[in-house]
From TrEMBL:
Its main location: cytoplasm. SMART domains: HTH_MARR. It comes from the Bacteria. Residues 21-149 form the HTH marR-type domain. It is found in: Cytoplasm. This is MarR family transcriptional regulator. Keywords: Cytoplasm, DNA-binding, Transcription, Transcription regulation. PANTHER family: ORGANIC HYDROPEROXIDE RESISTANCE TRANSCRIPTIONAL REGULATOR, TRANSCRIPTIONAL REGULATOR, MARR FAMILY.
Length: 158
C-alpha cells in the first residue's frame, strides 16, 4: 500500500525542538552580517558605511531623486536616511536641495566627487566570495528578493 504524498514537506522538528540554527530568519540575518564583514575593508578604504555606499549606488543609477523615493528604495526610514545624507553632503559626495515648488520635497543628486567614488567602488565584486556558481548566483538573488517581497506583502496584511 502506498502512502499519499503530502503537498507540504514534513517538519522534522517540533517547534520546541528547533535550535537557533534552524531559523531561516537567523540564517538571513547572519548572512547579512557576513556580507558586511566582506565589504568592510573596501568600504573603509572609501571612507563609507554600507548604507552610505548603497545610497551612492542608487543615486548613480537614477540621478536626481527625492529623499522619500530614495528611502523607499533603500528600505530606510527618514530618521535614518537624513543623517546619512547630511554626512555624505558634508563629505562632498552629494547635494540636497529643496524643491522650489514644494518645499517639503528635498532632492538629492551626486556631485562629481560622488560619481568618482562610486566608480572606485566598482572593484567590489563579492560574487566569487559567495562560492556560488555563475548559474547559482542569479537564482539565489532572485529567491532572496522573492522572500523579501513576500515578507513585505505579509507585513502589509495583503
Amino acid at each position: 500500500m502506498s502512502v499519499p504524498k503530502s503537498k507540504t514537506p514534513p517538519n522534522p522538528k517540533s517547534r520546541s525542538d528547533r535550535k537557533l540554527a534552524d531559523f531561516l530568519c537567523f540564517a538571513i540575518y547572519t548572512c547579512n552580517l557576513a556580507y558586511g564583514r566582506a565589504y568592510k575593508p573596501i568600504l573603509e578604504e572609501l571612507g563609507l558605511t554600507y548604507p552610505q555606499y548603497i545610497a551612492i549606488v542608487s543615486l548613480w543609477e537614477e540621478g536626481r531623486q527625492t529623499v522619500g523615493s530614495l528611502g523607499e528604495k533603500l528600505f530606510l526610514e527618514s530618521n535614518t536616511l537624513t543623517p546619512l545624507l547630511k554626512k555624505l553632503e558634508k563629505m562632498g559626495y552629494l547635494r540636497r536641495e529643496r524643491d522650489s515648488e514644494d518645499e517639503r520635497q528635498v532632492f538629492v543628486t551626486l556631485t562629481d566627487a560622488g560619481r568618482r567614488l562610486r566608480e572606485k567602488g566598482l572593484k567590489m565584486n563579492l560574487v566569487k566570495a559567495t562560492g556560488l556558481s555563475p548559474e547559482e548566483f542569479p537564482k539565489m538573488q532572485k529567491a532572496v528578493v522573492t522572500l523579501r517581497d513576500n515578507l513585505l506583502q505579509a507585513a502589509r496584511g495583503k
